[in-house]
Structure formats: C-alpha cells, structure tokens
Write a structure and sequence with these properties.
heterodimer, A: 395 residues, alpha+beta, Gyrase A, domain 2, Alpha-Beta Plaits, 4 domains, five-stranded mixed beta sheet, B: 289 residues, alpha/beta, Rossmann fold, 32% helix
C-alpha cells in the first residue's frame, strides 16, 4: 500500500524549477520513526519498507539495510535514524498514509486525491501543502497544509467563506458537530437532501487531522466519498430508474405503474425537476434503463448519484397519481400579460426566487401585489381560476 | 474491527425524526465499545442503500431503531441493505422474538449481523419505566400512579400491538405502578378515553414511538385532550377529566434507549466490555434529593 516512486523522479526533484515553491523543512517526529521501526520489526530480511526514493529492511542480525539509489548500506538504529531524518519528508509522508490515514479505501483515496499523492512527488506536494492546497467538494472548500513535523492539517468551510478570517466564523473541532450545520438552510428551513446546494455558511473546521477531515465530509455529504471512490475504481453500481421503481413496495409500490412502456419523457421531467445542479450537487449517473439514456444533463458534480434517491422516489409517487389523470379542456380568458404573469409565477417558484422579488417591484410577474391582484380579479369565491370549477359537475 | 450501524426511518419533513438516532449513536460512541458507529436512514442520508459502503469494520452489527417487527424490519431494511438470501424465517420469530441473522450484505460482500428491532427487546421495558421517571422527575415513581403504554393498534401492523402488550404486561408484573394499561390509537382500548381506563389520579402516558413527530406531538395530545390544538401546547402534568396526565412524548428519545441498541448488538455477539453498565449509569435519572 505504500507508494514507491522511482529514485530517478526523486533525483530530478533535487533541482526544482526556478519558480517552483520551496520545499519546507520537516523534522522527523519520534512517532513516525517508531512506526518505521515497528514496521521493520514485522519484516523479513530482504523485504524492505519502501519510501519515495529509498527503502529500509531488517538485516540478518540486529541491524538494518538502508538503500538509496544503487548501494545498499548496513547500519544500526542510530545511523538509520540519521538517514531517515535527512529524508524526513518522505518518511512522514509514509507515516501519514500508512499509519494515520490507514487502509480504508474511500478515506485513503480521498485524502491522497486532495494532494494528488498518486501523481506528484513528496517534494512537490510538500511545497504545495506549505502554500495550501485547495479542493472543492460540493459547496465545501478544503484547504490542506503540512506542519513542520509532516502532519497534514485541513481547513473545511463553505466555499462562500473562502478567505474569511477564521475568527469571523464559528469554529468547530468535532466532525459530528457538522450534523447541526447541515440540518437547516440559511433561512432556517429543514434540508431533506444533504447534497442540495443550500448549505449555510458562516462556520469552519479550521484545524482537522486526516481522519477527522474525512468524517467531516462524510457528515456533510454522506456516502459521497464512498461512491466517488467506487466510480474511480470503475466499480460504481448504478441502479437506473426502472430497476429502482420496480424495487419499491408499500405506499411506493405504485410508482412502477408510471412506466407504461410508452417512452421515458416523464423521467426526463423528473430529472429536470429534481436532479439539475441547481437542485442537487450529485452528478446523475442513472438513466431510464441500461439501454436508454435520459435527454437531460446529469450535472457536473465531483461525486456521482448512483440511483434515484428517496426524495425522487417520494416525489415520483405523487406524480404517478397526478399523471394518471386525463387532461381536460378548461376555458377562461387571460390577457396576454396575465398569461405571461402565470408563466412568471411558475418560473419564480420553480427557481426558488420568490424571496428575491421586492415587495414594490410590480414589474415582476411573481410580485406579491401583482399576484394578489390576479387572484382578486380571476378567482371566484371558491378559489376557481376564471370562475371555472375543477370538476364539471360542480357547476 | 467492530462496527455498529443504527438504521432508522428519518424524515423528509421533520428534523426531529433523526435526532434520537444521532443522540443514541453519540452515547454509544462515548463508551468506546465499537470502533465506529454509523447511522443510516430510509428518508435521510446516508440511505439504507449506501450506509454499509461507509462502514470500515469486519464485524458489523446492524440494529434497527424501530418499535416493532413488520414491514420495515422484515422487508424494507433487508432489501435495501441487500442481505443475500434474507427470509423472515431467518429470525424464527413469533412477532416479538427476532434476535439476529448473519447474512452477507451484497453491497460490501461481507457478513453483517442483522438484529431485531429495539422496540421488542426485553430491555425496552426498562426504557419505558425510565421514561416515566424522567417525565415525573422521580426515580421512584410508581406508588399512586398509573402507567399507560400507547401505540398504534393492529391496523397498520399486528406486531405493533404485540410489542405494546408485551411491555405493559412486564411492567405490571413488577407491581411498581398501581395500574398498567396498553392503549391504542386506532383500536380499543383507545387512548382517547384514557381517564376512563384508570382509577389513579396520576397517570404517566408513554407513547411507544421512536421519535417525536406528528403522532406524538399532534395526534395523541389532541386525542387525549391535553390540548384542543397542538399549537397551544400543554402542561406536564395536564388534568383531563380529573386525571393528572403526565405526557412523556416518544419513548425513543429517552437516553436509556442507547442501552437497548447495545443489548441487541450484544445478543448478536458484539463484544461490549463495560459499555452496558456505562450507559445505564450515564443515562440515569437523578434521585430527587
């Protein structure tokens, strides 16, 4: 699981490009050295622990074989310490990923991705970490840094708060505190979908270790790292619309009747309504079925959506009932502006813009006074548009 | 590495629905008995379908935070967790005795221990009593008091009434309360007529629900007559037809519920160390003096 990189790459890095950021000085912490000794104690002679550009193995006796480049050298513990301390960046990098981060696939892949540990050398990464590496994940801004002991530290906050001094934000340490940050949007409304682009800002986790970073992201956007990881491994299990609806039972069993073998336009409408990037930050990978792609865009999110979620299934249940109705012809008169106003109201609600329309801005069709005027003019005492009853026999 | 996964219903509409799940998960985390404690939901995230892929451990215990055996524990959860070869006969239950089944979860290709719901565990009886202690703020409550255990009737699920009767009978056998009755929302004896079913002047009403929501905050208070409209609120106790009713709200919000989650995992083979004792101690009601 270690990431041996060729000695050549290491050597090439000894002469950094002129404008490359400086590689920070790193001390070798005792816990990292002890971890190396523990790892060596578990090895057979000739089975080295590999670091970027060098390796160490136990010898046949009490000593070690240290190999950098082409000449292995036998040495005692003191000399090994000296050799590793000279290469503290590579040793601490090994320690972070092999001992702190650990093997769990999603966590390891995510933390390595943040600093491009599978693409860049230790020197390049440590130089970049010294400046701060920024990554986006949904609405999050993650900034990774490294201490002078080679430890990774992470700042997580809303992307809108990038650059805001930490003391102007509510600072947190415990990843589970993020549960309270994701429950309500900025207007205090409950967020039923954690990947909706409605995460409130004003907070930061300014100084997390690797595991706590992973847990914080997992709390804010549950299972997104696991699904992203599966996708990178080519193992994302996508369950398409039809299969998902076929699986439903109980009060949701009715949704399977919405697919009548007459096309999938209704599913295009569902995806446009619920899964657009303006509504959910997951990138929709599910389609109508494994042979039929939907016609609407799946979005650009970093993490995939692998099947219709519970919000979509619940809404689909409602639409299944509503869409079983037959259209009727209703007749009532609207002025051209009134027709456009009805369209403006639908647009404003669908785009969540009603709160942005100013109280006295009567140029806006979805303005409250304009809408109240329309209701006063066109509704009868029973609330029927144009005085036309919904059911014909109500007349 | 030992992992606990608590699975619960959750809600698209009500943030209180998942609150007890998180609270009990936190209580159990604090004991250190599990290397990780995860939560998964039917209506929130991570969904049942995706929670197992967030789990790292190789000994995985899944405990449903549900009141009774039925549609969710027998059909929805095993299906959504993708438990290979699941059949309700795996539990060999009479509606109250589901303990655990060990099956491969296809999502992660590892075995998980799928436990019976918390609501039917014998330890749940103690949580109902503890709830009565909490709402009366009296660790010795019993003498001079009646206790009503309330739930759905059989209309939605025949096992729902079984769980309520089971716990009411067990509490009655302890001779702690002057009277113990099982009452229902949609069948006789109905909770609407609570004062008619009790001779005691004081009655603690404990709804057997996991979370506070529509049933416990609107339905039952209005049906019992604690208030005309739930938006008005009510006192604890509130006097209705001469009976002082101590309305406890959902039993699932009682901190001792964490103990039942642990009991379920222990019955399925989890190694808990001193966690059971720790939870019983930390969730205790202070004695009144």
């Amino acid at each position: 699981m270690s990431d041996p990189t060729s000695a050549e790459a290491d050597a090439a890095d000894d002469e950094p490009a002129e404008d490359a950021p400086a590689v920070p000085d790193v001390e070798l912490p005792s816990e990292a050295f002890d971890a190396v000794l523990d790892a060596l104690a578990d090895r057979e002679p000739g089975k080295p622990v590999r670091f970027e550009g060098f390796s160490a193995a136990p010898d046949e006796g009490d000593g070690y074989v240290f190999a950098a480049g082409d000449r292995p050298k036998t040495m005692g513990e003191g000399e090994l310490h000296e050799a590793l301390a000279e290469r503290a960046a590579a040793v601490t990098d090994w320690y972070v990923f092999e001992r702190v981060v650990g093997e769990f696939g999603p966590r390891r892949a995510f933390l390595r991705w943040i600093e491009d540990a599978d693409g860049e050398t230790v020197a390049t990464r440590y130089a970049a970490l010294a400046e701060g590496i920024e990554r986006a994940w949904g609405e999050l801004r993650i900034t990774a840094t490294v201490t002078d002991r080679g430890e990774r530290r992470y700042d997580v906050r809303h992307a809108d708060d990038a650059g805001v001094p930490v003391d102007e934000l509510d600072a947190y340490e415990d990843p589970l505190d993020a549960r309270d940050l994701v429950t309500f949007d900025e207007q205090g409304r409950y967020r039923p979908l954690k990947t909706a682009p409605s995460l409130a800002g004003g907070w930061a986790f300014p100084d997390l270790g690797p595991r706590d970073l992973y847990e914080t992201v997992e709390t804010i956007y549950p299972a997104t790292v696991a699904n992203w990881h599966r996708e990178r491994e080519g193992e994302l299990d996508v369950t398409h619309w039809r299969e998902t609806m076929e699986r439903q039972s109980g009060i949701y069993g009715v949704v399977k009747t919405w697919d009548r073998g007459e096309g999938y336009e209704h599913v295009n409408w569902v995806a446009e309504a619920c899964c657009d990037d303006s509504q959910c930050l997951k990138r929709r990978e599910w389609q109508y079925d494994d042979e039929t792609d939907l016609d609407v865009d799946g979005g650009d999110g970093a993490f995939p959506c692998r099947e219709p979620c519970s919000v979509v299934v619940s809404a689909a249940r409602k639409w299944t009932r509503l869409e079983s109705e037959q259209p009727r012809t209703y007749e009532f008169d609207l002025t051209p502006s009134e027709k456009e106003q009805v369209e403006a109201i639908i647009d404003a609600v669908a785009d969540g813009r009603t709160d942005e329309i100013r109280e006295a801005d009567t140029k806006e069709g979805a303005n409250r006074y304009r809408t109240r005027f329309l209701r006063a003019k066109l509704f009868d005492d029973e609330g029927n548009l144009g005085g036309v009853p919904t059911e014909p026999d109500e007349e | 590495m030992q992992s606990l996964v608590i699975v619960a219903h959750g809600s698209h509409l009500n943030p209180e629905s998942s609150a007890p799940t998180y609270d009990h998960a936190d209580t159990i985390r604090a004991t250190g008995a599990f290397d990780e404690v995860r939560t998964g939901f039917w209506k929130e995230e991570p969904h049942f379908r995706e929670v197992l892929r967030t789990v790292e451990g190789d000994e995985v215990y899944v405990v449903p935070l549900f009141i009774s055996e039925g549609y969710f524990t027998e059909q929805v959860i095993p299906r959504e967790l993708r438990l290979a070869g699941w059949d309700v006969s795996e539990w060999d239950s009479d509606g109250l005795s589901a303990d655990q089944a060990t099956l491969v979860a296809e999502d992660i290709d590892r075995e998980v221990h799928y436990c019976g719901p918390v609501g039917t565990h014998r330890a749940m009886t103690d949580v109902i009593v503890r709830r009565a202690e909490s709402v009366t703020n009296d660790a010795d409550v019993g003498e001079g008091f009646g206790l009503a255990v309330v739930g759905h009737g059989t209309e939605r699920n025949e096992n729902s009434a079984k769980a309520i009767e089971y716990h009411a009978d067990r509490i009655a056998e302890r001779d702690r309360f002057d009277e113990v009755k099982a009452l229902y929302m949609d069948e006789e004896p109905e909770v609407d007529d609570l004062p008619e079913h009790f001779e005691s002047d004081d009655v603690v009403l404990v709804p057997l629900f996991i979370a506070d929501g529509y049933h416990t905050q609107e339905d039952i208070p209005e049906d019992v007559g604690l208030c005309e409209d739930h938006t008005e609120g009510y006192d604890v106790p509130e006097t209705v037809d001469g009976t002082r009713i101590w309305y406890a709200g959902a039993v699932g919000t009682e901190p001792l519920m964490a103990d039942v989650v642990l009991e379920r995992a222990a019955d399925a083979g989890a190694d808990l160390g001193t966690a059971l004792d720790d939870v019983r101690e930390t969730t205790r009601v202070a004695t009144g003096d």
